[in-house]
Specification:
Helices cover 38% and strands 24% of the residues. By secondary structure, it is an alpha/beta fold. Strand 1 and strand 2 form a beta hairpin. The chain starts with 8 loop residues before the first strand and ends in a 12-residue tail after the last helix.
Length: 560
């Protein structure tokens, strides 16, 4: 008879609350989960569901007034909730490692990377004396950083997002912990970089026999990386079980909504439906091809090149070609997605189209008119036809302006309507993006990320534009909120005959929303086609890599 293994981590009826002026506010309610040695378990849920609070409670780093008010956190037989701060410090790092979400705010900007890894080794008494420098290099190499000896001498700002995340993995695994908590470790990264880092982390933890608690809001990613899923909603665990079982047969309505909303799984459903010859799947949000088939180009970009001068650089390094001879067209009433990794030149192209940057060479045409020939007054009038929605709504909405003033500003700048008419228009726009009219009196800081993005869309629609440029407009949002915004954009496009230029690195979203796709790499267009053709028959290896890196792509959603 086989012996049942002893759990490494056994959380029983955990309750966490935060002290507020009105008393204790519960954040985690009666949560129970078990992790065995070497097992990978994922907690899935949207922002505010209690995922990160649960992780912070395990490692004894609850923010602010957070407190464990009930239940047990048994780790190797010890109740972590009852340990003193000194005892907890010995467990933290040495027994339980952590890879936090945002690498820039979790690395000290004034310390070299090597020094920060060395601190983790010193704090846990892992290596003594002269060996420490070699160990730092070894850990950075293990985490997949090339030329680790030189990299150790650099500062965080000299690293890309992916490299910073690798440095945090090196720190998290420095003391060879039994459990590693990875809190949204790749949410800000490109899909290809995300895949490399997660593959590497998986290989490392398997080799070391480390158990992993993986926290994410992407169900496709969770199911691909973990054997067991735990779904959290409003502080409670609503479903728990083997990953594949939950994906194929979700029981709780919230889990069903998560499965339906995950773009990676939606992309796969579209592909599967097409393979079975089913037309017009519910997941595809793009205007159907026969509606836009004969449409002319509302925007035409020809031989666009942009070269930046790099300050302080000399010789050949002085010039950086961000955009290199780019040509494409946006069909009227359709959605064109421009995809590629960070640094591929996507956003630079968008800024040139919006006339926020001048091209070094090449032309942008709007309805056949060369934008470079327009005078100041004509360009100002063109602003009404073309509007942007940026990636970070908090950065693009003035925190000192009320929502009313944020949405009304374009109307005021273009001298449209009386005060009364403008007020009516703002109310109509908020209705259009499904926000209550009472939102007018609030400020950006009082709204969630999804609500702020709706405000940004309302503002973009204020002037009745024909074209909206969406620069990574949904990449920072939870999957459920993302699904709502994508549906909203699809409805608005059908109703108002809008044309969208959709800049993104997320191909799963592209599969749902775009009619045509332009793939960029190192400033050049490497492939362009209709969405179905590009996904079904990608020509370039780079495009194939991007498609293969969509998380959850290999998971069978149906049995058989």
């Amino acid at each position: 008879m086989t012996e049942t293994p002893t759990p490494l981590l056994d959380i029983r009826d955990l309750e966490v609350a935060f002290m507020s002026s009105t008393g204790m506010v519960p954040a985690v309610r009666k949560a129970s989960l078990t992790i065995y040695p070497g097992q990978t378990v994922a907690i899935v849920g949207e922002s505010g569901s209690g995922k990160s609070t649960t992780a912070a409670a395990i490692i004894g780093l609850l923010p602010g007034t957070g407190k464990v008010v009930g239940g047990e956190i048994l780790f190797d037989g010890k109740d972590l909730a009852k340990l003193s701060e000194k005892e907890m410090t010995q467990v933290r790092g040495d027994q339980i490692g952590m890879v936090p979400q945002d690498p820039m705010s979790n690395l000290n900007p004034v310390w070299r990377i090597g020094f920060q890894v060395k601190e983790a080794l010193k704090a846990n008494n892992v290596v003594k004396g002269n060996e420490i420098h070699n160990r730092v290099t070894q850990l950075l190499e293990e985490a997949g950083l090339p030329d680790a000896k030189r990299r150790a001498k650099q500062f965080p700002h000299e690293f890309s997002g992916g490299m910073r995340q690798r440095a945090l993995i090196a720190i998290g695994l420095a003391a060879r912990p039994k459990l590693l908590i990875a809190d949204e470790p790749t949410s800000a990264l490109d899909v290809t970089v995300q895949r490399q880092i997660l593959d590497h982390l998986e290989g490392l933890t398997e080799e070391l026999g480390t158990a992993v608690l993986f926290i994410t809001h992407d169900l496709g990613l969770a199911a691909e990386r973990a054997s067991h899923l735990v779904v959290m909603h409003r502080g409670r665990i609503v479903e728990s079980g083997p990953a594949l079982e939950i994906l194929q047969n979700p029981q709780h309505p919230y889990t069903q909504r998560l499965v339906k909303a995950a773009p990676s799984l939606a992309s796969q459903r579209i592909r599967t439906a097409q393979e079975h010859g089913e037309e017009g799947t519910a997941d595809a949000l793009a205007i159907s091809e026969d509606v836009v088939a004969d449409a002319d180009d509302v925007i035409r970009v020809e031989n666009l090149t942009k070269i930046f001068d790099i300050r302080g650089a000399k010789g050949a390094d002085k010039h950086f070609k961000a955009v290199d001879d780019v040509t494409f067209g946006l069909r009227r009433g359709s959605t064109l997605a421009v995809v590629g990794e960070s640094g591929s030149g996507k956003s630079t192209v968008a800024n040139i189209i919006l006339n926020l940057l001048d091209p070094t060479s090449g032309k942008v045409y709007y309805e056949g008119t060369d934008l470079s020939t327009l005078r100041k007054a004509e360009l100002f009038a063109l602003r009404r036809k073309m509007q942007p929605v940026f990636q970070n709504p908090y950065g693009s909405l003035d925190p000192m302006y009320s929502i009313y003033r944020c949405v009304e500003e374009p109307l005021q700048v273009h001298s449209i309507g009386t005060v009364k008419e403008r007020k009516e228009r703002v109310a109509d726009l908020l209705d259009m993006v499904a926000l209550p009219r009472s939102t007018m009196r609030r400020y950006p800081g009082e709204l969630s990320g999804g609500q702020r993005q709706r405000v940004a869309i309302a503002r973009a629609l204020a002037l009745n534009p024909e074209i909206i440029v969406l620069d990574e407009a949904v990449s920072a949002l939870d999957v459920l909120v993302q699904a709502q915004i994508l549906h909203l954009l699809a409805e608005l496009q059908a109703e108002l005959k809008l044309s969208y230029l959709f800049i993104t690195h997320d191909l799963a979203v592209v599969r749902q929303v775009a009619n045509d796709v332009v793939v960029m790499q190192h400033g050049r267009v490497v492939e362009q086609n209709t969405t179905d053709e590009l996904f079904n028959n990608p020509v370039q290896t780079y495009t194939q890599d991007l498609i293969n890196a969509i998380p959850g792509g290999s998971i069978p959603l149906w049995e058989g």
